[in-house]
Amino acid sequence: MNHNQAPQLNGKWLDSAAGDPGAGGFPERVLQIGEGNFMRGFIDWMLQRMNQSGHFQGRAVAIQPTPRGKVVPKLNRQDGLYTLVQRGVENGEPAERVELISAISRGINPYENWAEVLKAAESREIRFVFSNTTEAGLQWSEEDYEPEKSPLSYPGKLVALLYHRFLHFGGAEEAGWIILPCELVEDNGAVLKGLCEQVAAHWGLPDSFLAWMEEACAFCNTLVDRIVTGFPHGEEESWAERLGYRDELLAVCEPYHLFVIEGPEGLADELPLQKAGLNVYFDRIDSYRERKVRLLNGPHTLLASVAFLAGVDTVREAVEDPQLRAYLLHAMTEEIKESLQAENRERADRYIRDVLERFANPYLQHRLLDISLNGLSKCKARLLPSLAAYQKEKEALPQALVFGLAALLVFYRGTRFEGERYFGTRQGQGEYEIRDQAKWTAALFESWQQADGPSADLSGIAKGFLGMTEIWGEDLNRIPGLGESVTRYAEGIMQGGVRQTLREIGFS
Predict the structure, then answer these.
(1) What is the pLDDT of residues 68-113, one digit of tens each?
(2) What is the CATH number of the domain that holds 476?
(3) In this protein, which residues make up the domain named Mannitol dehydrogenase C-terminal (predicted)?
(4) Which one of 132, 230, 235, 438 has the lowest number of neighbouring Cβ atoms within 10 Å?
(5) How far apart (Å, rounded) are the C-alpha atoms in residues 185 and 194?
């Protein structure tokens, strides 16, 4: 069956196929900020599992987090339906599961239909808020409060919705929400709560609202773990033939999943993830988080710039490349591992083996450019803690991590803007889009304009990059020797490329 000739997946097709994925007609119980691959391959899949097990009976309304989002129209064309494919190796054997997910009721673009989002916030049924806006979403952004218009930032949206709900229900305690951010930021619930309080104060909202938000709402710290690669580009025809329909939102992920939640007493009963047989823990996050963020997400972020600039496009290709694998192993075993707390250091070797096996999953094509989204915030959350802890412990710089920071700087070397889109050029392989906050990409573009060709003196650019305290939360130039090392490695990458520079350092 030709992909373009296949029927579109939607409610009409489902009715004609006499299919019932198990959530049709369930009320909206979840407000979801973010509609990307990860949310659909993790949270919405979990909602589906709870619905199928008979423990939840609720769906999510998905809110587009940024003005440039492209998923909501597709969601609505498909009546919230999409296909999730789990591919991987389990117990040494290939495993694949295909599920039709119906846990999303609809999508809303808040920049076009803010009134519709406010109406959803008035629903008594809505109890939970999940979000994944990447690390960049949990940051302060000064903006005015306009009740009839969606704020740009996630904390702004959340405060506006909470305040609307507070007014609508007259401050009733039972109208409070349980808020579970899934961004990979340490103490993400506490960070989001602090940002919401800052927004409310900036907007001059009444003390009674702040008291209600404190007493009636719960901001939970969470940790999420699943590799979701998204749409399987190049496989459209085969999937249309196999499924019998065309799915614009088909997503691929690994079978593995982990969700750790620090929440109020009784949350495990109210959000029955464990009863649905999911790998979920209601527990303290500290040790889980350090292992996962530093030894899985950190290497991902390293590869997004280092391996991409070396001419590789996916995580799997990178870990199968002898030179890049040697570099990655050194970073993980000799540097990141040495920065961990003693408890996690003892468990690190097994975890590293598991991570590398997951990275090499033959059924996933995890594109490095997808991982590069908001790479500056990701570097701060995923790599800088390891760099700082190693430097403090060893009184020396972790060279593989420093090289990754230099590669990130070169990755952000933009060559042109097109509207708000920012593009760089990979040597000999054409352009790529650099997707991050416009204020940061614009600043780096301006800084790079000072460089005149690949042999330019990059010390000023590196100093400015490391001194972007709005990104890093501190001036990284204060770390002894870091500026000189980043400059040297960036010059090497610019002049001879990633591979030659890695050989000169000794990662070959």
Answers:
(1) 889 999 999 999 999 999 998 877 788 899 999 999 999 999 999 9
(2) 1.10.1040.10
(3) 285-487
(4) 438
(5) 13
Choosing from 247, 282, 317, the residue where a domain stops is: 282
- Rg value, the chain, Cα: 23
34 Rama sector, left if φ>0, alpha if ψ -120 to 50, beta otherwise: left
Q: Are residues 163 and 178 in the same domain?
A: yes
Per-residue model confidence as pLDDT tens digits over 321-379? 999 999 999 999 999 999 998 888 988 999 999 899 889 888 888 899 999 999 999 99
Residues 330 and 255 in one domain: no
Q: Which of 220, 219, 199, 224 is nearest to 209 (CA)?
A: 199
How far apart are the C-alpha atoms of 304 and 477, rounded to whole Å? Answer: 23
Distances (CA, A) of 54 to 26, 50, 266, 504: 11, 6, 19, 59
Could you give the CA distance from residue 295 to residue 291 in angstroms, rounded to a whole number? 6
| Contact assessment for residue 231 and residue 3, using Cβ atoms and an 8 Å cutoff | no
Q: What pTM, to 2 d.p., does this model score?
A: 0.77
Q: Note every long-range contact of 436-445, with CB atoms under 8 Å and residues 24 or more positions apart, other chains counting.
A: 436/136, 436/373, 436/374, 436/375, 436/376, 436/377, 436/412, 437/136, 437/374, 437/376, 440/376, 440/468, 440/470, 440/471, 441/412, 441/414, 442/417, 443/468, 444/412, 444/413, 444/414, 445/414, 445/417
Backbone angles phi, psi at 396, to 5 degrees: -155, 160
